[in-house]
Amino acid sequence: MSSLKRVAYFFGLPILLIVLWWALSFGSTNFFVPKPIELAQTLWTTWIGDRFVEDVLPSLGRLAVGLVFAIGLGIVFGLLIGSTRWLRNLLEPLLEFFRAIPPPVLVPLLMLLIGVNDSMKVAVIISGAIWPVLLNTVEGVRAVDSVLNDSCRSYGIRGLARIRYFVLPAVTPQIMAGVRQSLSIGLILMVISEMFASSSGLGFTIVQFQRNFAIPEMWSGIVVLGLIGLGLALIFQFVERRVLHWYHGLKEITHDS
């Protein structure tokens, strides 16, 4: 696909939707739905400046720390649980139990245990974003080719060498699929954690705008969250293309044949 076509695909539909929004809101006096130009002006005046430093950057920092811990812990515990059959059988019911608990209900509990601080917000992100990575890693290790596994043992490849050169490459596609889900879950939980007993952050600011009937400002905060989500998706695609270059190349060869 040419670069021009990629750009057309990337911007085409958003531009079409904005034009449709402008046409539908033309001449409208609805207080709760701002016009595109008004929203763009509000987005610039509201978020470019002190508010970016005081609200956006702290939110991004908490999100980054929470995702790094969630992905790291998910991979480590997933490899450990997936590689040990008795441990997997022992923990499987417990994992299913904790996975079924919606992370937002843990916010009041974590506030009591940790306190109202950044650690609580990071813990909320970890509590929800860890599960896709953890469970995908466990399933990936479980699905490793048994013949190749026996071959590794025959050649005496064990311990960390087996994990590095055999298990990790085999489960990386499943891990990356879990990471993709974790990014969106982490962003949602970042906003929710900031809506409880917080004095800064995107979630707190959007709620304040809503309570003060600052409707265009509230919409602009939602747009900022969408742009952050888009940025995370682009970064993920960039990293995935490099980590799984062999996997995508294999798929293209299989597809061509």
From TrEMBL:
Entries under SUPFAM superfamilies matching the protein: MetI-like
Signal peptide: none
Pfam families: BPD_transp_1 (PF00528)
GO biological process: transmembrane transport
Sorted UniProt keywords: Cell membrane, Membrane, Transmembrane, Transmembrane helix, Transport
Gene3D superfamilies per record: MetI-like (1.10.3720.10)
Compartments in which it is found: Cell membrane
Ranges that cross the membrane: 7-24, 63-82, 94-116, 122-141, 185-207, 219-239
Membrane-related topology note: Multi-pass membrane protein
GO CC terms of this entry: plasma membrane
Family named by the database record: Belongs to the binding-protein-dependent transport system permease family.
Protein name, UniProt field: ABC transporter permease
Organism of provenance: Cryobacterium psychrophilum
